[in-house]
Amino acid sequence: MLGDLVENTLVEQIPDSSIIHRDLADEPLPHLDATAIAGFFSSPDALHDTLKAAIAQSDELVEELLAADILILTVPMYNFAVPSALKAWIDHVVRIGRTFSYDGQSFAGLLQGKKAYVVCAYGATGYGVGEPFGAANFVEPYLRFVLTFLGITQTEFFSVEATSAPEDARAPFVEKARETILQALRGAQPA
Ligand SMILES: Cc1cc2nc3c(=O)[nH]c(=O)nc-3n(C[C@H](O)[C@H](O)[C@H](O)COP(=O)(O)O)c2cc1C
């Protein structure tokens, strides 16, 4: 719901947007296997049909991401980390020579000039920096690092906590998240 709010608020401001939705829970991506990994690390002229087929899905996801100005991720915490469905997507799009480069000494992100909005949902509370469960939050710091690694440095993270609490306890958290999102996105422009 908060992800939709981010999307709809951005679309109001950028009405000619074209949007690709990927529901990674309803249509899960396969985990990487050895053939796909071999394809990732093969030079284009060494890609025979089996390797090409193994990386076709990844190629599509990478092209999608390269073409995008804005990435919106909506992410529930599962066991203190991102759901494996999202991790599978990350494994398909973090591609040497496509979305990051390595020259033998240093890495560089190849996704320049893009913005990312990330909405994280936590069933419990206390996952902020310095809070009781802050050290158990492997969602936000991980995503921040991965996005930066790929070159996406313009990021905004929103969070909602207590989503597993009863409605009356949850409602103020949801309302606060809604307000934060609306306030932050007013006047947002494409990258
Ligand atoms: C398998 C599973 C694991 C979860 N693990 C955690 C967790 O470690 N910490 C937490 O605060 N909430 C956890 N939750 C609660 C979800 O993060 C929370 O319900 C979230 O709002 C779900 O996203 P949704 O509202 O978009 O469905 C878990 C939920 C599920 C289904």
Automatic annotation (TrEMBL):
A Pfam family that the UniProt record links to this protein: Flavodoxin_2
Annotated residues for binding of FMN: M77, Y78, N79, F80
Catalyzed reactions: 2 a quinone + NADH + H(+) = 2 a 1,4-benzosemiquinone + NAD(+); N,N-dimethyl-1,4-phenylenediamine + anthranilate + 2 NAD(+) = 2-(4-dimethylaminophenyl)diazenylbenzoate + 2 NADH + 2 H(+)
Gene3D superfamilies named in the record: 3.40.50.360
Protein name according to UniProt: FMN dependent NADH:quinone oxidoreductase
Encoding gene (name): azoR
UniProt cofactor(s): FMN
UniProt remark on cofactor binding: Binds 1 FMN per subunit.
Superkingdom as given in the UniProt entry: Bacteria
InterPro entries referenced in this protein's UniProt entry, alphabetically: Flavodoxin_fold, Flavoprotein-like_sf, FMN-dep_NADH:Q_OxRdtase_AzoR1, NADH:quinone_OxRdtase_FMN_depd
